[in-house]
Amino acid sequence: MKIYLFIITGIILATCASSNVPQNKGNFEDLITDGKDVFFKDMTFDDDIDFTQFKKNLISEGVYQVRIVSSVTFQNCTFKGKVIAYGKDDDNTITLTSFQSNLSFIGCIFDNDVIFRAASVLGRTDFTNAAFNKSASFEECTFFQNAYFRASTYHEELRFQNAVFMQKANFLNAEFDATASFQQATFRSEAQFSSAKFMGYADFGLISCHGNFFANYAVFDNRAIFNHGFFNCQVDLLNIRFKQCEIQNCKFFGETRFLKSTVEEHLSFDNSFFLLGMPDISSFDKEKLSLEGLDTRD
């Protein structure tokens, strides 16, 4: 009896361990097709990774969707080709991708375009320490669980327009060398941009924040736009360095702090509204401020 138990236990342990063993890159398509978990580590992919090639379902006229049920994890991998989760044919037929589990590219390097436009991720999203050497599109994406982009770097244009973060969005220590657009993005929970560096144009216009918004120690070395933003909770913009910034026609309903922040050229708060009263902006050079039409409830 003891011998049989030992054999059975060994089989169970071997089966569990095998799920954590990286696969050969040649079987990526088979794993997705079979709905099995995907885990690749320390590999280089020369060809495109195209999630739109798999079985599609029609969801509305001219729009198809691919459902990826596999857990998708790449760790310390390099992608020479494109990574694609959105397609538009010559006849304007659109293909979207819905990831039913996690989507993780931890410590990965993208040497070509990354296209996740209009994707939905039901599980955790993790691009921690990822390096995007070409353009990256996450516009119109919906992230249902925490989305981590900590210490990620972007060397060409980044697009998060109209993206929706249902849980936490973490861009701590991220670096943006070119245009970074979060225009009209919705943050349902905490948004973390502390210690981020924006070397190009930063567009946060029309964002909607329903949780705390943090950007402490962030650097904006180009023009930054926050116009028409809605901030329902705490906003911490401490020790920030602005070059040119517009925070016009914004609504702040929670505690808002700018302590020890500075501006090099110009900062405008024109027509913004602060429910709890004007925050302390004494660290800014008054000659570089514009406060026309400011509305506070002091």
Low-confidence runs (pLDDT<50, min 5 residues)?
1-19
- The N- and C-terminal alpha carbons lie at a distance of 80 Å
The number of helical segments is 2
The assigned structural class equals mainly beta
Biggest sheet overview: 18 strands, parallel
Mean pLDDT: 92
Shape field = elongated
Count of domain modules? 1
* Rg calculated over all Cα atoms: 22 Å
DSSP E strands, number: 41
Helix content: under 10%
Which range does the strand content fall in?
35-45%
Keywords:
13-stranded mixed sheet; 18-stranded parallel sheet; elongated; 298 residues; 2 helices; disordered N terminus; 8% helix; mainly beta
Outline the fold blueprint:
Blueprint: H1 2-18, H2 28-34, E1 38-41, E2 44-45, E3 49-50, E4 56-60, E5 63-68, E6 72-75, E7 78-79, E8 83-84, E9 87-88, E10 94-99, E11 103-106, E12 109-110, E13 114-115, E14 120-121, E15 125-126, E16 131-132, E17 136-137, E18 142-143, E19 147-148, E20 153-154, E21 158-159, E22 164-165, E23 169-170, E24 175-176, E25 180-181, E26 186-187, E27 191-192, E28 197-198, E29 202-203, E30 208-209, E31 213-214, E32 219-225, E33 230-231, E34 235-236, E35 241-246, E36 251-252, E37 256-257, E38 262-268, E39 273-274, E40 289-290, E41 295-296
Parallel strand pairs: 1-6, 2-7, 3-8, 5-10, 6-11, 7-12, 8-13, 10-14, 11-15, 12-16, 13-17, 14-18, 15-19, 16-20, 17-21, 18-22, 19-23, 20-24, 21-25, 22-26, 23-27, 24-28, 25-29, 26-30, 27-31, 28-32, 29-32, 30-33, 31-34, 32-35, 33-36, 34-37, 35-38, 36-39, 38-40, 39-41
Antiparallel strand pairs: 4-5, 9-10
